[in-house]
Design brief:
143 residues, 3 helices, 7 strands, 4-stranded antiparallel sheet, 3-stranded antiparallel sheet, 2 domains, alpha+beta
């Protein structure tokens, strides 16, 4: 009787082990898939786009004192409310520093760069557009 009971206990434990391992593997795969999906749609993950800022084609106006040189770069879908982050490549830092850039301007379909001086050479950079925040209706209604 004792040998039969021991055999039955071993059988039950093996079934529990098989069941548990299968479910743990399934759970691990599900979590892995969810993490991959979160990474794909992560809202705060910037998408930088490579650009070359030329040393030619700059225009002049007096709209922003001290930064009279500007260059318009066409960016499809850009709006006046968007914010644009421009990052200069380390290899172009000296040229960009000498040009003395100021904050970017967003216009409909145009990224405007302003500088105190026209760059002496082309500048390698990247930009990222952060769409303007539009509050959901429940945030804009008076309470």
């Amino acid at each position: 009787m004792g040998l039969t009971l021991t055999s039955q206990i071993k059988t039950v434990l093996q079934r529990v082990k098989t069941y548990s391992v299968g479910h743990i593997a399934e759970l691990a795969q599900t979590v892995s898939n969810l993490l991959e999906e979160v990474d794909k749609v992560k809202a705060d993950k910037p998408e930088y786009i490579d650009i070359t800022i030329p040393a030619t084609g700059w225009k002049t106006d007096n709209t922003v004192p001290g930064y009279t040189h500007y260059l318009d770069i066409q960016v499809k879908g850009l709006t006046a409310d968007d914010k644009v982050d421009v990052r200069v490549a380390p290899a172009s830092k000296a040229v960009a520093d000498a040009a003395r850039f100021t904050a970017t301007e967003s216009l409909a379909g145009v990224l405007r760069l302003r500088a105190a001086n026209v760059p002496s050479a082309a500048i390698t950079a990247q930009y990222d557009v952060s769409a303007a925040y539009i509050a959901p209706a429940e945030e804009t209604e008076a309470t």
